[in-house]
Prior knowledge:
Blueprint: H1 3-31, H2 55-61, E1 83-88, H3 89-92, E2 102-108, H4 114-128, E3 132-138, H5 139-148, H6 150-157, E4 160-164, H7 166-182, H8 184-202, H9 220-231, H10 240-260, H11 269-278, H12 284-313, E5 322-325, E6 328-331, E7 334-337, H13 349-360, H14 366-375, H15 385-396, H16 401-410, H17 413-417, H18 438-449, H19 459-468, H20 479-493, H21 498-509, H22 513-520, H23 526-536, H24 539-556, H25 563-580, H26 593-599, E8 605-609, E9 612-618, H27 623-633, E10 636-646, E11 649-658, H28 666-677, H29 684-693, E12 705-709, E13 717-724, H30 729-739, E14 742-752, E15 755-764, H31 773-787
Parallel strand pairs: 2-3
Antiparallel strand pairs: 1-2, 1-4, 5-6, 6-7, 8-9, 9-11, 10-11, 10-14, 12-13, 13-15, 14-15
Helix pairs in contact: 1-4, 1-10, 2-9, 5-6, 5-7, 8-9, 9-12, 10-11, 10-12, 11-12, 13-15, 13-16, 15-19, 16-18, 18-19, 18-24, 19-21, 19-24, 20-21, 22-25, 23-25, 24-25, 27-28, 27-30, 30-31
Amino acid sequence: MMRGDARSYAAxxxxxAADIDRWLADLFRTACPQPHGGREGRNGLGGAKSxxxxxxxxxxxxxxxxxxxxxxxxxxxLSGTGIALLAVxxxxxxxxxxxxxxxxVLLHNGQDDIGRIADRIWYPIWDSGLGLDHSVRTVEExxxxxxxxxxxxxxxxxxxxxxxxxxxxxAAREAVLAEWRAxxxxxxxxxxxxxxxxxxxxxxLAFLLEPDLRDSRGxxxxxxxxxxxxxxWVASAPGPRVREAYEFLLDVRHGLHLVTARxxxxxxxxxxxxxxxxxxxxxxxxxxxxxxxxxxxxxxxFDATWRTVDRLLSGPAPRGRRPLADGVVEHxxxxxxxxxxxxxxxxxxxxxxxxxxxxxxxxxxxxxxxVLAAQSPPLPVPWPDEARDALVALLGAGRAAVPxxxxxxxxxxxxxxxxxxxxxxxxxxxxxxxxFTVDRHLIETAAGAASFTxxxxxxxxxxxxxxxxxxxxxxxxxxxxxxxxxxxDIGARMGLAPADVETLATVVRxxxxxxxxxxxxxLDDPVTISRVAEAVGSREVLELLAALAVADGxxxxxxxxxxxxxxxxxxxxxxxxSALSGSPPAPAPSLSPQQASLARHGGGAIRVNGxxxxxxxxxxxxxxxxxxGVLAAHRMVVRSASAASASSTAVIEFAVIPEYGxxxxxxxxxxxxxxxxxxxxxxxxxxxxxxxSVRPARVPVAPPRVSLVDDASQTATVVEVRAHxxxxxxxxxxxxxxxxxxxxxxxxxxxxxxxxxxVFYVVDRSGQPITDAAxxxxxxxxxxxxxx
Length: 788
């Protein structure tokens, strides 16, 4: 299907609304008694005259197909009947998608038989199978309900006359609009609070893997809220860019309804390719990139609307202008240009204004952003020092830099400053670990890195590397490798010294080195530390990578960064720092006081503390996977685990969460762990029952991958397992090692979203790594078989 078909969706929605209008008008005509002298004529969306042409009603709905929109349907006028049928919601806006319900209001002036008339309209609608949300009100009742019910008033503000007495409809709408405007301070505050609660529950459309097209932040309801603000005469109706984004959101919902054959608003993963095809887009990634752009456009305008509302409703701002930087002042709570300043004369002004705004915690006035975007000349290449300093000052403002960056990005300024930004702009990350698009993740990481500028010798390089660390995701291949190349070009463009460009490129190339090594390699193995030290090369790069790891992890999401990972990275940094300074390697780990206390139990001890499970026992083959089997049998999901040995004592630390519901009783869990350690509990039968009760994945998942990593250790064979997580996965992997007569000397287990990334250091029964080629193949195939 070509994109031209998607463009016809808007026409299809209006045509369907017109068909529904005619049908409803016929139902209304049949249900209502004809008044003496009554007349029939054209009205509604398809009539020659709707009766709603005043300026206030055009402001309320004309820009998005509301009451002032061009006609598209037909109905019956029965003047003087004292009854009218109104459409609200998607039918009222002529945006009826294939699976949309009908929202109708039957107005009357007190007829005794209104219940009978209503039934003669509602029952045929129900019989047709269409969903229906309906109400029957007098004008006074409608006004009273709208006074207290936000949903009702939003519907009536954009209500559209279908059939009956147009004067009754006019009276209801004028009364509702008058009260909405008169009480705008209270009602708009209520609307804003409702929108905040909705977005808190549904997330931000631009950054969700499975967004709710209607309720997410930046979705359809935010545009409708802006229309309601415009109807209150407090701010302008949404402009062309927002209307275009809104139409695209409507098209996506239309395509989703066609693909699923039902009314749905959540765009789930398994439908995204089909919806992309319905809209004539290449694939799901192209769809989600367009969707992210539309969501951010709406969200940006939504924020600007509420800034206007707050400014107007809070009274006049203090007069005067407060200087912030050269050519930049604060005026009325916003950052504007000083009088007489011409952006055409100063290419650095845009960055200087952005830095001043972020450092003051203020927005740049929309008009100022437009002027800067339209009139600022290109920066010379390489950048002057002042331009680079302004960029670093902007990023160094931390969280305050994010909205300012968004303002510039929406205006197209960032791409002109950093042309390579276009490759990552609005690029989705189809990975449950990431909560942001690539570009938003980069600025979020830079904002987080600002907290560590006191802890590194080169804060400027920390902030710039944080901004660019994932820039390689805009190109094919390993993003760390491509990112190094792109970072070199951008660093030179920014005017960094050659040595600084090398440092920047090294940090971008190795930005995942510390977290991946800490969670997937044995820190007690000397090879691990020596390889990291060789890669980073200097303490300066190490401290930059350490700070970036924290900022990157926090900006990615809770599944990517936690106290367990933070402690491992910190320990790795400590050991590598010692190696770089020439200090002797750290001694073999000893048990912590708590672990030593548990070890005194002799036969094994377990401690369950919320989501932390510690097992300390004499080291023996199969200890890790048997303990993991007990956890799986109790419906506990292992999010991370580490296993190590010290003085013939094995220490296993699990981080677990219940699969659903409340966690099991700690005493019962501890008892079963002790039984399995003592060899008195066969966990396999319990897990078999659990496996039968688990539903298979609804969407296709990538096949598992098992790799034997060469040169990662001189004393063990490192086996890396990547697979879709499921109950008992760690138990299956461990049992496969046991069946191959291998012992797990150390392990790092992590679950990222729904994907398990597990690394095991295994040795044969003589304590040696696997060197025989045939045996290595056998181990890989045996583990793969256990995962299927």
